[in-house]
Amino acid sequence: MLVNMKEMLQTAKAEGYGVIATDAWNSTSLKAMVEIAQEKKAPIILSLAEVHLSNITAKEMAELAKIYTKDTTVPMALHFDHGMTFDEIVKAIHAGFTSVMIDASSCDFEENVRRTKEIVKIAHAVNVSVEAEIGHVGGAEGGGDDGLGSLLTDPEEAVRFVQETGVDCLAVSVGTAHGLYTGIPKLDFERLEEIAKVVSVPLVLHGGSGSGDENLRKAVELGISKINVFSDMLKTIEVNTEKAGEDIFGLDREKIAKESVKECVAHYMKVFKSEGVCQ
Q: How many angstroms separate the Cα of 242 from the Cα of each of 144, 232, 248, 256, 265?
């Protein structure tokens, strides 16, 4: 069932588990995510990043999500991830997304606040939750480079940002990055713990892929309620396809892709302690 992300993450925050947010890029990946969430009785955030609109439109994603989640019983949010442009975010809201992210983290504080408040006003009027980011997680959602390095989140700025914008959850930068790492990153847990103590809304960690299970478990324990995973799904598909050999047909590749997405998502549901919370 599709729900607003706000209540989902408030429950996760209160009960001490993390909800996985997974970027879908086509109907196969989306269906796999819905199926594994239902199988594992775990909440999930079905995301479409603005950079992936060339693969599937927001309207197509919303219509497919409504079909695939029609008979499900676990809460699932449909989230527009890393919305960079006002028009695309509004289109996602009109299409039926239950949550959106306004990513103005590359702007200065005042401009980030201004753009975020604008989206919050529109989204909240139609019961859509809003995520924003303070600090900046480097890399790029598609696994490349956005040309900007990471800027760690300042706890005092995080408090001001939430108070001035009214966002429902806040993405913070504590040492992760988008895309694939050459090694396991070193997370600033002391900074995360300080942020969690002073910020009232659920916290989000981008760049979960490759961050290491122990790091992610600890991040959840210290207050992270939503964790984005994308690159690890692609990596799992690649590994499983290579294992199958070169002489496989297109339909076989699609089946491998679907099962690989479910394998990766199921793993992280266990790491984030969300498996079975929706009994």
A: 22, 15, 10, 10, 20
State the catalytic residues.
81
Alpha carbon 20 to chain centroid distance?
Answer: 7
Q: What is the pTM assigned to this prediction? A: 0.92
How far apart CA 69 and CA 247 sit, in angstroms, is: 34
d(CA 2, CA 58): 15
In tens, the pLDDT along 42-78 reads: 999 999 999 999 999 999 999 999 999 999 999 999 9
CA 220 to chain centroid: 14
Spatial distance between the Cα atoms of 263 and 274, rounded to a whole number of angstroms: 15
Rounded to an integer, what distance in angstroms lies between the CA atom of residue 253 and that of residue 256?
A: 5
For 262, other C-beta atoms within 10 Å of its C-beta total 21
Q: What is the mean pLDDT of the chain?
A: 92
Residue 264 phi/psi, 5-degree rounding, is -65, -45
Nearest to 179 by CA among 214, 145, 153: 145
Q: How many CA atoms lie within 13 A of 143 on its CB side?
A: 13
pLDDT at 142: 43
Residue 228 and residue 140 in contact, taking contact as beta carbons nearer than 8 Å? no
Neighbours of 238 (CB within 10 A): 13
User: Domains of the chain by range and CATH?
Assistant: 5-271 (3.20.20.70)
pLDDT at 175: 82
Q: Region 153-174: what's the mean pLDDT?
A: 96
What percentage of the chain reaches a pLDDT higher than 90?
81
